[in-house]
Amino acid sequence: MNTHPQHPGTTRMNRELSICIAQINYDSAHIRAHLERLKAIIRDQRQADLIIFPELILHGHPSLEKPEGFLYRKLKAIYGGISQDLYRFIREQDARVIFGELRRQGDLYFNLATYADRHGPQHYAKCHVHWTEHFTPGREIKVFETPLGRIGVSICFDAAFAEVWRVQALMGADLLVNIAAVPATFPVRQMWRRLVGAAVFNQRPVIYANRPGSYFSGHSAIFDAQGELVLNADGREAIVRGQVSLDEAATWREEEPIFPHRRPQLYREITTRSAPRPRRVSAGGWGREG
Per the confidence metrics, is the pTM higher than 0.85? Predict the structure, then answer.
């Protein structure tokens, strides 16, 4: 990647990014071996500009532990140091990595997306917690400042809310990333439609990193700023690489200047009114998506 300094309000850099999506699953039975596997992937793929793992890939998902809540107890007793261990390793490798982890603060548990590089970690706490989950919702949409540009990161069910993507774009995100653990019961085509919409309406590339396997749907993907599919995986474990052009995205925003023509005064209903609550239908087990 070739970069040079830019003004905070611009997106003009020579930025062709190499993206690695590590579409892998979590091994709760062998946490140390799993941590070493994450490190091996980072070591092998560190020449990529950005390495992306799925949601909660470091600690696992509490709802998948039996009995329910077992992971919360393990987090107190066993997993205390693995986050710091991984941060140190990423710094030593001079890599740039996005991954999901679980964070405990007292009796509260947060579902985090972490961006880490040689300068240390930055965190986003999932704001839209699925109704089948028991996390404490985050209270702030974030855009990470990175050597690659500004990266807006969301987690799984966040993708259902167009406001998240738009706020990140308004905050100057050059790239939008969603890390997920979407079960196979939720249609891939529906998830992809959300991602294409995020790319088209915000004129930014979108990267989706989901878990694979028998329970999850996989199909991680990259879409360019016009919503075209650049790269996708299937439902199996895979390490895939693709390119993202932030220059092409910036050029498209100049050719089709949507954002300068926004009229925010007309959009007040977004923050003052909610649609009627739908009748809740049991999804069975963990739910259709998280």
Answer: yes
